[in-house]
Amino acid sequence: MKTVIRNASIVSDGNIIVADILIAGERIEKIGTSINLSDVCSMIEINAEGLYLLPGVIDDQVHFREPGLTHKGSIYTESRAAVAGGITSFMEMPNTIPNTLTQELLEEKYTIASTTSLANYSFFMGINQNNLEEALKTDNENICGITDDGLYFNNHEGILANYPEFLEQLFSRTHSLVALHSEDDTIIKNNTNHYHKRYGEDISFEFHPKIRSEEACLTATKRVLEIAKKHNNRLHLFHVSTLAEANLFENKLPVREKRITAEACIHHLWFSDKEYERLGAKIKWNPAIKTVEDKKGLLVALLDDRLDIIATDHAPHTLEEKSGTYFKSLSGGPLVQHALPTMLELFHQGKISVEKIVEKMSHHVAEIYRIKERGYIREGYFADLVLVDLNNEWTVTPQNILYKCQWSPFENQCFKSKIVKTFVNGNLVYDNERFHENNNGKRIKFEKHR
Q: What tens digit of pLDDT does each residue of 181-231 get?
């Protein structure tokens, strides 16, 4: 069976061209004008006139909660929401239960995904003070990288950015990409004590960016960058949340040649501290959403290539887990279904081009992680594709939210662009709010050298 998508505005490699695209099996066989299929007996034909065809989004930072936390979400439920949002590949974090700290536990996640994930998948190897030797066994061709995101370094407190001596060991020995969450725990603790003494348990959510402050982010990021530059390691910084941090990164080299890369997340690009009064715990993330100036500055840093990619940090919790006081409500929230529509909304506002969105959500992710044959619309590549109507308004409601947690900080938001169809490995998985679940995604493969 072959599929031809006709008259689509194809966005790839910095260009937009109106053309046909032929899908044969899992891959793109041909791109051209007026593809003739008169000799093909079995064919599906899709008229995409007036629609935009984008390479599938690759999200390098999600928490899909399986195993151990499936009351919040599962690989099946969250990958389903992801493909509805145009995300065709994801990389998932190790802070499940048990934490993914052995190669055996890592492969167990792949086994689950192979039978349940509608999107393509990869899983990070977790690292803490007790498993350095195990983490160093990570296979670059089959695993996206090593991370501490969501994990405690010493089983009690802290993340890797606060342990420079251990970072020296890791960076001096590993050949894998290391991806880190960067905040200074001492500064956060001091800020927490200050506000707790002042307000007790009744701390307003508006103080979250004061507690997890710019200083906490900047101090840790400077420390990590100094060590990484010393060893020339492949370092990727997750969810940069401040303009001050963005100013630490360079844009002198093409992304593939950078040894240090960094990302911004959807919530830091869309929300600011002005929204805490309205949304409270629903926008409580770590690192915190910060000022309007930070929000604007992160977008500028993306446009001028100091920041390299856009991710979601999709981290669902139940509404019960997000309720209560500042100290009781958990940090994180669901995002994969609404990430691409949010960026396309910024396009409608004249803040970013569609070509740049594709570069930051697909092309550059593939280049940073050295993903094989994905992230572009090119002949011979896997047919991970998203067909988008840029002029089809819809509103986020409880009825159309697909996350297992059943809520979104974007509820009641009107988006001007709508995901029409999503193809994963040539299979039409999502089609105008209907799912075709006959085919699962595939394990993402990588180049050996990062």
A: 999 999 999 999 999 999 999 899 999 999 999 999 999 999 999 999 999
For 284-296, the pLDDT digits (tens) are: 999 999 999 999 9
Supply the CATH classification number for the domain 2-53+381-394+413-435.
2.30.40.10
Residues 6+ apart with CB under 8 A from 40: 2
Write the DSSP string, 139-168. Answer: -TTT---EE-TT--SSSSS--GGG-HHHHH
Question: Minimal CA–CA distance to 357: which of 26, 56, 3?
Answer: 56
Choices 3.20.20.70, 3.90.700.10, 3.30.360.10, 3.20.20.140: CATH for 54-369: 3.20.20.140
Q: What are 166-188's pLDDT values in tens digits?
A: 999 999 999 999 999 999 999 99
DSSP secondary structure string, 365-416? HHHHHTBTT-SS--TTSB--EEEEETT--EE--GGG--STT---TTTT-EES
Domain boundary assignment for the chain: 2-53+381-394+413-435, 54-369
- Round to whole Å and give the CA distance between 270 and 413: 12
Over residues 118-137, the pLDDT tens digits come to: 999 999 999 998 999 999 99
Q: Give the count of alpha carbons within 13 A of 297, CB side only.
A: 17
For residue 198, which phi and psi values (nearest 5 degrees)?
-80, -40
